[in-house]
Amino acid sequence: MSQHTIVTAGVDVSKYKLDVAISDRSSVVCFEYSLSGLERLTKFLQKQNPQLVCLEATGGYERSLVHHLQTQGFPVSVVNPRQIRDFARGLNQLAKTDAIDARIIARFAERCEPRITQPVPESRRKLVALVSRRRQVQEMLVQEQNRLGTIADKEIQKLIRRMVREYQKQRREIDRRIAALIKQDPQLDTHARRLQSVPGIGPATAGVLLAELPELGTLNRQQIARLVGVAPTNRDSGTLRGKRTTGGGRVQLRTALYMPTLVATQHNHRIRTFYQHLLDSGKPKMVALIAAMRKLLIILNTMTRNGQSWNTTPNNA
User: Fold this and answer.
1) Sign of the CA dihedral running 281, 266, 139, 153
2) CA–CA separation, 206 vs 81, rounded Å?
3) What is the per-residue pLDDT across 126-152, written as a single tens digit (0 to 9) for each?
4) Do 233 and 305 belong together in one domain?
5) pTM of this prediction?
6) Among 64, 43, 49, 56, which residue's Cα sits nearest to residue 9?
7) How many domains does the chain have?
8) Is the dihedral of CA 275, 280, 281, 282 positive or negative?
C-alpha cells in the first residue's frame, strides 16, 4: 500500500442506477444506468479526475460500465464484493445503503489501491457474453427438467418437454458459437487446446475458464486458489480452533470445475492418486474433492503460465 493519498471514485452498481462517491468528498452523486447517464458520469469524473475508479463485481451488471470507463481512459479496478464487506466491517460500518456502499468502495480504493483491471479484447468480451448465456440456458433447462418430474398432467408435460428441447437446441447453438469464436482467435484457440489436453477438461469448461478466469497463468498457486475460493483458510477462534475452510472467490468458477474434478478423480491419474491418498488419510469426501479441485486448478495455472500441455507439465505442479 502506498503512503501517499490518492483521489479515488467508488461506484455502487445496480441494474438501473449508479451511485458515485469521491474519496475526498462526502456527497454521493446518482446517475441513471443508461447511455445518457454514462455520458453524464463521464463528464463528472473528468472534472473530479480520480486516479482510480473502483467498483464491485456484480454478476454482470458492471460489464458495460467497466467497458465504457476504460474506453474513456479511466483506470478501473473491479474487486470482489467480499473484500468490500470485510473492509466495511473493519471500519465498523454496519449500515448499508447504495450511497454508503459507494463511499466505502471509494475509501477501500484510496487505502488499499487494488490492482487495475485490464481492458478486455473484443473476442473475449463476446466469449464472456456467450458463456454467461450458456449458464442461463443450462439453469433454465435444469429447472424445466426438474418440473417434469413433479407434473402429472400429460398436456403440461408435453409443453415442458417442448421447452426442454428448445433449451437443448439453444445450448448446442451457443456451444457451436463458442467453438467458432475460439477457433477464430489464435490465442484463445491455443489456450483452449492446452486446457483440453487435461483429462477431465472439456470444451465447455475450457470456455468458462477462458472467459471468466483471465488471470489464469498470471498468478502464483496461492493467489489463483484464493481467487477461485478453493484456498484453505485457518479458523482459530472459539470452537473452530484448528479448522480450515474454503469459500468466497468466484462461485461460478467453482461450480464449473465441480464436474470436471469429479471426472478427473476417476480418469486423471494424477488427480485420482492425489484424491485417493486424501481419502485413505481419513479426509471427508467433500474436503478431498475441494483439495482435488485446487490441485487441478493449480496444474491448469502452471500449464498456462509455462505454455505447456498436460503431458509436459511437471508432476509437482
Assistant:
1) negative
2) 25
3) 999 999 999 999 999 999 999 998 999
4) yes
5) 0.75
6) 49
7) 3
8) positive
